[in-house]
């Protein structure tokens, strides 16, 4: 059984929490668009990723780690289902 002082300490700690300052995690979406007219360009959250002559994917704008991770997953999926017309993928975290 909890003592009165222990219960008072717990209540004081709960009362001292500023619930408005707690930041809720926001969901992030990575939108990848691919057009079949130009096989060497894919847009990741509006950032253009282009395939160079060596077959390496490059971008002028920096991408986050999450964007890179899902871009890689998209490329692997695209390789497995080339016969399908995959145009857009949305990954939500």
Q: What would you note in describing this structure?
A:
- By secondary structure, this protein is an alpha+beta fold.
- The chain has one domain (24-92).
- The protein is 30% helix and 25% strand.
- A five-stranded antiparallel beta sheet has the order 4-3-2-1-5, covered by helices on one side.
- It starts with a helix and ends with a strand.
- The model has no long low-confidence stretch (mean pLDDT 78).
What descriptive keywords fit this protein?
alpha+beta; 93 residues; elongated; single chain
Order of helices and strands: HEEEEHE
Query: Which geometry do the CA atoms define?
Result: elongated
Q: What's the multimeric state?
A: single chain
Number of strands: 5
SS summary, helix count: 2
Unreliable stretches covering 5 or more consecutive residues: none
Tell me the radius of gyration: 24 Å
Structural class by helix and strand composition: alpha+beta
Strand content: 15-25%
For the largest beta-sheet, the strand count, sense and barrel status come to: 5 strands, antiparallel
Question: What average pLDDT do the residues reach?
Answer: 78
Q: Kindly give the count of domains.
A: 1
DSSP helix fraction: 25-40%
Strands in their spatial order, largest beta sheet: 4-3-2-1-5
| Separation, N- and C-terminal Cα atoms | 42 Å
């Amino acid at each position: 059984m909890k003592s009165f002082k222990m219960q008072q300490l717990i209540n004081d700690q709960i009362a001292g929490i500023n619930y408005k300052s707690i930041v809720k995690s926001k969901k992030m979406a990575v939108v990848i668009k691919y057009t079949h007219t130009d096989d060497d360009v894919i847009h990741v959250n509006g950032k253009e990723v282009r395939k160079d002559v060596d077959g390496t994917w490059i971008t002028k704008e920096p991408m986050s780690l999450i964007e890179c991770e899902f871009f890689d997953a998209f490329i692997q999926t695209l390789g497995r289902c080339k016969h399908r017309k995959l145009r857009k993928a949305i990954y939500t975290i």
